[in-house]
Automatic annotation (TrEMBL):
Protein name per Swiss-Prot or TrEMBL: Signal transducer and activator of transcription
Single GO BP term: negative regulation of developmental process
Molecular-function annotations in GO: DNA binding; DNA-binding transcription factor activity, RNA polymerase II-specific
SUPFAM superfamilies, per database record: p53-like transcription factors, SH2 domain, STAT, Transcription factor STAT-4 N-domain
Encoding gene, per UniProt annotation: Stat4
Gene3D superfamilies listed in its UniProt record: EF-hand (1.10.238.10), SH2 domain (3.30.505.10), STAT transcription factor, all-alpha domain (1.20.1050.20), STAT transcription factor, DNA-binding domain (2.60.40.630), STAT transcription factor, N-terminal domain (1.10.532.10)
Domain SH2: 563-665
Subcellular location: Cytoplasm; Nucleus
Length: 742
């Protein structure tokens, strides 16, 4: 079943979440019509590879054209209209930046997987629940409402300033007219009456000046309060959501809304600044005793400038954290001399700033590393599909300085991956007479010199971003805090949903919890960093995290379709395995990950002896080396067991609890029985062709198969003998020669 088919079967509350992240950037119509094709492409790799993204965009447009041809034949007018509009939209938005649509589609697919994983959980995880707090949503709406009200107030004050200007011009004219009269004319009753009218007008001017200053003061106060409280909280919440998204959590949205708020506030402050400049202009033309402008204007202008400085400083954010294109799902782990990408945005989107702001990237000041490549670029509105004022560095490389390289040999493996660094960015904004220096930094990154350090480095990134919302605590691992186990388990499930397309259910998480704690109940359990990543599991030569990372790698490379279909129970102990199988039909089996072999998967089936006793058999775990030679689904289909001197037979009948094996795995078989190579097929090279057949031999005094010499080549003559004893509809698979010759 395709991922999109699974999404469509979700409950309405989950479908509403799906609806939120499909818009004109990636219309849901395209997701629906091209579901299988979209899911078969590697959008994650394309999101950091421009050439690949360009090809995928072209292929996407070709797919849309093919759908257009189809619906045109069906004369579906509405769908024809929508597809034409969507094709034009996609072509226009992404022609100059194809990687952006790759990022969008990759994020949408990942968010679908996360929602599917969440739907399979009995309750929402604590971290995700905190990110979807109703109080937060209410505050977002309040911020947008207040920003809109402030913008309206600033525009209304513009009208008051214009009225004040017109009133003062009239006063100037009438006053200068009287001043131009002869002295004798000034003593007339008419002129005295005019002087009284001028005095009344001056009183009105004074009142209006005070009123305008008061309104300006209120607008400034409203902006100050909004920035100090709700807007700051919104920005901090977005940064926290970004942290969680980086380690596999829910897709972090809301930056466009924040940009809208920041931009409107900046426009309002600049509008107020112009109003104060206009008042200064009016002051030079007319002042009087008790004039409020020279008293209040300097203070108000100072406050406006202060708010603008703070608004700009807070608006300079890292939109996409540093990430190597080769490992898009492991952000903030950087390998020396390997390029990484990072994207920054200025949330104040003003046309005057386009291509006017040059951003410089540097690494932290310990002088151990330097950045190579283009590290100074101008922000612009052309590279982003949504027109944001941003800059993306795509060719930066961290390089270790020679002076420090010599001392690295004294460091242990954990010290390398627990050392945190940050990528810093600085720029300067010059606008309307203001010069504002801006600085921001990435979340802490871990530098590695060898890809073998990647698993432990990623563990450090997970632990940091799970445990703290401090964006710059580079000494965090000097004394790493413990983590709440329930939150850690939620993050571990995200690793599976984001990396291999299916999260973990409560039973699987309970097994992991028991493995970490040795306890069945783990409410409020605090797990140490050492227990997670540094201390070996009891009786093993590896840590919990290394064991789990090896399983992720195994799934990704060798059993991904089986995992996504939900047919791999995976995380189940030997004890629980036997409890589950003991009352099942003989031949019922389940798949679980090895607890003693890194990156191994095994299967155990239940059998019944002649005396009625139940017995269990587990095959030696298959690792990536053996699975590279033969697909796991084919192994399950073709696996044979020789009991003493009996005819080889496949003991695997039903996948737990009672799913016929071929029904579960049939679509994943690589070929059909009659497609097995014949001896003449390979004659061109002078070799006798061979096939691979996994076989185990169970001795009378053994309950488990001996270690099978799987995947050894079988000659056609031996193969022919085996076929005499097997149904032609069953796929043959490798038999160790000694088993057949003994």
């Amino acid at each position: 079943m395709s991922q999109w088919s699974q999404v469509q079967q979700l409950e309405i509350k989950f479908l509403e979440q799906v609806d939120q992240f499909y818009d004109d950037n990636f219309p849901m119509e395209i997701r629906h019509l091209l579901a299988q094709w979209i899911e078969s492409q590697d959008w994650e790799a394309a999101s950091n590879n421009e050439a690949m993204a360009t090809i995928l965009l072209q292929n996407l447009l070709i797919q849309v054209d093919e759908q257009l041809d189809r619906v045109s034949q069906e004369k579906n007018l509405l769908l024809i209209h929508n597809l034409k509009r969507i094709r034009k939209l996609l072509q226009g938005k992404y022609h100059g930046n194809p990687m952006h649509i790759a990022v969008i589609i990759s994020n949408c697919l990942r968010e679908e997987r996360r929602i599917l994983a969440a739907a399979s959980m009995p309750v929402q995880g604590p971290l995700e629940k905190s990110l979807q707090n109703s109080v937060v949503s209410e505050r977002q709406r309040n911020v947008e409402h207040k920003v809109s009200a402030i913008k309206n107030s600033a525009q209304m004050t513009d009208q008051d300033v214009k009225y004040l200007e017109d009133l003062q011009e009239e006063f100037d004219f009438r006053y200068k007219t009287i001043q131009s009269l002869e002295q004798s004319d000034k003593n007339s009753a008419l002129i005295k009456q005019e002087m009284l009218a001028l005095q009344a007008m001056l009183n009105t001017l004074d009142y209006k000046r005070k009123e305008v200053l008061s309104k300006i003061g209120r607008v400034i106060h409203e902006i100050d309060m909004l920035m100090s409280n709700m807007l700051t909280e919104e920005l901090l919440d977005w940064k926290r959501r970004q942290q969680i998204a980086c380690i596999g959590g829910p897709l972090h949205g809301g930056l466009d809304q924040l940009q809208n708020c920041f931009t409107l506030l900046a426009e309002s402050l600049f509008q107020v600044r112009r109003q104060l400049e206009k008042l200064d202009e009016l002051l030079t033309r007319l002042t009087y005793d008790g004039d409020p402008i020279p008293v209040q204007r300097p203070q108000l202008l100072e406050k406006v400038n202060f708010l603008l400085y703070n608004l700009f400083r807070n608006s300079f954010v890292v939109e996409r954290q540093p990430c190597m294109p080769t490992h898009p799902q492991r952000p903030m782990v950087l390998k020396t001399l390997i390029q990484f990408t990072v994207k920054l945005r200025l949330l104040i989107k003003l046309p005057e700033l386009n291509y006017q702001i040059r951003v410089k990237a540097t690494i932290d000041n310990n002088r151990r590393f330097v950045l190579c490549g283009t590290h100074v670029k101008a922000m612009n509105m052309d590279e982003s599909a949504n027109g944001s004022l941003s800059v993306e560095f795509r060719h930066l490389q961290p390089k270790e300085m020679k002076s420090s390289a010599g001392s690295k040999g004294n460091e242990g493996p954990h010290m390398v991956t627990e050392e945190l660094h940050s990528i810093s960015f600085e720029t300067q904004v010059c606008l309307y007479g203001l010069t504002i220096n801006l600085e921001t930094s990435s979340l802490p990154v871990v530098m590695i010199s060898n890809v073998s350090q990647l698993p432990n480095a990623w563990a450090s990134i997970i632990w940091y971003n799970l445990s703290t919302n401090d964006p710059q605590n580079l000494s965090f691992f000097n004394n790493p805090p413990s983590a709440t186990l329930s939150q850690l388990l939620e993050v571990l499930s995200w690793q599976f949903s984001s990396y291999v397309g299916r999260g973990l259910n409560s039973e699987q998480l309970n097994m992991l919890a028991e493995k970490l704690t040795g306890q069945v109940s783990y409410n409020d359990y605090q797990l140490s960093w050492a227990k997670f990543c540094k201390e070996h599991l009891p009786g093993k030569s590896f840590t919990f995290w290394v064991w789990l990372e090896a399983i992720l790698d195994l799934i990704k490379k060798h059993i991904l379709p089986l995992w996504i279909d939900g047919y791999v129970m995976g995380f189940v102990s030997k004890e629980k395995e036997r409890i589950l199988l003991k009352d099942k039909t003989p031949g019922t089996f389940l798949l679980r990950f090895s607890e003693s072999n890194l990156g191994g998967i095994t299967f155990t089936w239940v059998d019944q002896l002649e005396n009625g006793d139940v017995t269990f058999h587990s095959v030696e775990p298959y690792n990536k080396g053996r699975l590279s030679a033969l697909p796991f689904a084919d192994i399950l289909r073709d696996y044979k067991v020789i009991m003493a001197d009996n005819v080889p037979e496949n003991p695997l009948k039903y996948l737990y609890p009672d799913i016929p094996k071929d029904k579960a795995f049939g679509k994943h078989y690589s070929c059909q029985p009659n497609e097995v190579s014949k001896p003449s097929d390979g004659g061109g090279k002078g070799y006798v062709p061979s096939v691979f057949i996994p076989v185990s031999k169970i001795l009378n005094d053994s309950t488990d198969p001996h270690s099978p010499s799987d995947l050894l080549p079988m000659s056609p003559s031996v193969y022919a003998v085996l076929r005499e004893h097997l149904s032609p509809t069953v796929i043959e698979t490798a038999v160790c020669c000694k088993l057949f010759h003994s």
